[in-house]
Amino acid sequence: MLKDNNLKIAVQKSGRLTDQTLKLLKQIGLDFELSSSKLFAKCQNMDIELLFVRDDDIPEYVQDGVCELGIVGENILYEKGAKVKSLERLGYGKCNLSIGVPKKSKFKIKELEGQRIATSYPNSLKKFLRKNKINAQVIEINGAVEITPALNIADSICDLVSSGITMRQNGLKIVETIFESQSILVQNKNIESQAKQDLIEKILMRIRGVLKAKKTKYVMLNAPKNALPKIQKIIPGLKSPTVIPLSDPEMIAVHSVVPTEVFWEVIEKLKAVGATGILVSPIEQMFE
Ligand code: PRT
Ligand code: ZN
Fold first, then answer.
1. Phi/psi of residue 277, each to 5°?
2. Which residue CA neighbors atom 17 of ligand 1 most closely?
3. Dihedral through CA 85, CA 19, CA 202, CA 206, nearest 10?
4. Which pLDDT tens digits describe the chain residue by residue (288 residues)?
5. 212, 253, 260, 254: which is closest to 236 by C-alpha?
6. Do residues 252 and 242 lie in contact, with contact meaning Cβ atoms separated by under 8 Å?
7. DSSP string across 1-46
8. Which ligand is nearest to the CA of 17?
């Protein structure tokens, strides 16, 4: 049973966000096992319970205080218009809510006028249409929205896109993105318990540590001593690297943190200035 004094986190029961959400929660040190019913799980080491629900229900659960925290796609929050506090974007479940039209149509946004547009996101689409002063018929469909133009149920669609393959396979092209989304951690706006608020701060700090670590790698290398000034220029933000003398007095070992996004470039440049024995490892957590 859910206990009142436990902090409750709503997560998607089974879907695209589930694996990465559970992985993140394990990474921040929550020790839980999935029960057979899989409706909720109690953490063994903290006063936290996870509630497994459909993603569509998460905004309301958090808004109404059934759960203090939730992890959900921003697209669902936007669609539901939930009044919750956004804490941190989590970097996975990235997608766009986009409009797709049949490939052959020459498209200008005004051509949506009078069209039938199928979507599972009627509120988000209507907001977009209002903003652009377009009169169109919004047809609400739950699932397989992409086949509606072929079935002549709709003229175009508004759906989530990640790789773009689904739209392409159904003879559609993306002409407009109305919302960019990724998973996000949200909290209820009226948490009275200080203990729960403290726990939320703790969770948030740990999540930020994990996210920061994902953006960096730990690099160890050997290099000629006289290459150090060049190495310092190559590694962005490297002010005071860890420099270790080696048995060969002309050589040093350098340890440093390198941003993942420029990682390959940096390694190539390091090799070019004489770095050898380059070792790279992932960083699990990072705090400053
Ligand atoms: O059962 P429940 O209601 O919890 O799950 P669900 O079926 O409603 O959602 P689910 O698990 O499919 O998606 C959960 C969340 O993942 C979404 O709300 C988004 O925030 C995020 N997400 C990221 C996506 C996609 N990428 C995505 N590509 N959700 C859905 N899709 C679908 C899209 O609807 C389309 O059918 O994938 C297809 C397009 O993919 P591409 O790669 O072909 O472009
Ligand atoms: Zn859903």
1. 55, 45
2. 73
3. -110
4. 555 789 999 999 999 999 999 999 999 999 999 876 779 999 999 999 999 999 999 999 999 999 999 999 999 999 999 999 999 999 999 999 999 999 988 777 888 999 999 999 999 999 999 999 999 999 999 999 999 999 999 999 999 999 999 999 999 999 999 999 999 999 999 999 999 999 999 999 999 999 999 999 999 999 999 999 999 999 876 567 799 999 999 999 999 999 899 989 999 999 999 999 999 999 988 887
5. 260
6. no
7. ---TTSEEEEEESSSTTHHHHHHHHHHTT--B---SS-SEEEBSSS
8. 1
Judge whether 37 and 93 are in contact, CB under 8 Å. Answer: no
Read out DSSP for 224-246?
EGGGHHHHHHHSTT-SS-EEEE-
Report in angstroms the alpha-carbon separations of 269 from 95, 199, 221, 235.
34, 43, 13, 9
Q: For residue 39, what pLDDT is reported?
A: 92
- DSSP for 154-179 reads -SEEEEEESSSHHHHHTTEEEEEEEE
Mutate to test the pocket of ligand 1, among 162, 173, 174 (most ligand atoms within 8 A of CB): 162
151 in contact with ligand 1, CB cutoff 6 A: no
Rounded distance between C-alpha atoms, residue 186 and residue 76, angstroms = 12
Q: What number of CA atoms fall less than 13 Å from residue 236's CA on the CB side?
A: 11
User: What pTM did the predictor assign?
Assistant: 0.91
Are the C-beta atoms of 74 and 88 separated by less than 8 Å? no
Angle at 25 between CA 237 and CA 46, to 5 degrees: 115
Using alpha carbons only, give the angle 139, 141, 147 rounded to the nearest 5 degrees: 95
Residue 12 sits at φ, ψ, to 5 deg, of: -65, 130
3's tokens: 């206990």
